[in-house]
Automatic annotation (TrEMBL):
A GO molecular function held by the record: 2-C-methyl-D-erythritol 4-phosphate cytidylyltransferase activity
Site, as annotated: Positions MEP for the nucleophilic attack: R151, K211
Protein's name according to its UniProt entry: 2-C-methyl-D-erythritol 4-phosphate cytidylyltransferase
Chain's role: Catalyzes the formation of 4-diphosphocytidyl-2-C-methyl-D-erythritol from CTP and 2-C-methyl-D-erythritol 4-phosphate (MEP).
Top EC category: transferase
Site (Transition state stabilizer): R15, K22
Length: 231
């Protein structure tokens, strides 16, 4: 089974509110995107597609992919306005049997989790990593807290989100035939479950697999790198 990873790096980082896009912010002299590319390159993934802003394609090719020798990268394509648009642009280039869709903002992704995702996707066709919340979770009700939800009935969804390639391509083709901008699509599992009859299997994620979203997160990511294999 051949696998293709789509590494998403075309966001604008509004919540990160920094001069530089978060996927290019450096940790130990390497851009955040480097860490996902390193992990997927060292994993059992066969091919990699990077999706980045049109203006950043040359930088990604010359200053990241070629500089660090990420030879599994087969193409670098332009992203779109929303995450799902970027995913769709990556899917147009994806080949093989299974596809792993990963946020480059989740720079602490491990080779172990990637390989486990591949193994599970070969069996179940649709797989996402998830972790159990550590905090108490409540529904918002205006300025007040609403119902408190039993956190053991909830899970925090991560990436890579992994699918049989024909399944995910078919789901996205159907998505774009609808009024998709009104659907509030925030991940790929939603698309598969809305537009196919496939249930998405949850596998154990990794608390280190955080999504760098606000400035505090880059400090946490640096601490994880500092900790190395200790954690
Ligand atoms: N149009 C987009 C939007 C997001 N992403 C990628 O999807 C991942 C998750 O998105 P998010 O963390 O929301 O990144 P941004 O959209 O950049 O952040 P913000 O919402 O704060 O602008 C990131 O790796 C981001 O680069 C993308 O490739 N194309
Ligand atoms: C795909 C995702 O990482 C799963 O938790 C998340 O939905 C991405 O959300 P974002 O707002 O695009 O960062």
């Amino acid at each position: 089974m051949r696998s293709t990873a789509i590494i998403l790096a075309a966001g604008s980082g509004k919540r990160f509110s920094a001069k530089k896009k978060k996927q290019f912010v450096e940790l130990f002299d390497k851009p955040l995107l480097y860490y996902s590319l390193k992990a997927f390159s060292e994993s059992n993934t066969d091919d990699i597609i990077v999706v980045t802003s049109k203006d950043d394609i040359d930088f990604v090719r010359e200053d990241i992919v070629k500089k660090y020798g990420f030879s599994k990268v087969k193409s670098i394509v332009a992203g779109g306005d929303e995450r799902y648009d970027s995913v769709y642009n990556g899917l147009k280039e994806a080949t093989g049997d299974i596809c792993l869709i990963h946020d480059s903002a989740r720079a602490m992704i491990s080779v172990e989790l990637i390989n486990r995702c591949i193994e599970e996707t070969v069996k179940y066709r649709a797989v996402v990593p998830a972790v159990t919340p550590k905090d108490t979770i409540r529904v918002r009700d205006g300025e007040f807290g609403g119902e408190t939800i039993d956190r053991n009935t909830l899970c925090i969804i991560q990436t890579p989100q992994c699918f049989d390639i024909a399944l995910i391509k078919s789901a996205f083709e159907r998505l774009y035939k609808t009024d998709y901008k009104t659907l509030g699509i925030t991940d790929d599992a939603m698309v598969v479950e809305k537009f196919t009859d496939t249930k998405v299997r949850l596998i154990e994620g990794d608390y280190k697999n955080i999504k760098v979203t606000t400035p505090e997160d880059i400090v946490i990511a640096k601490a994880f790198l500092d900790a190395g294999n200790f954690l």
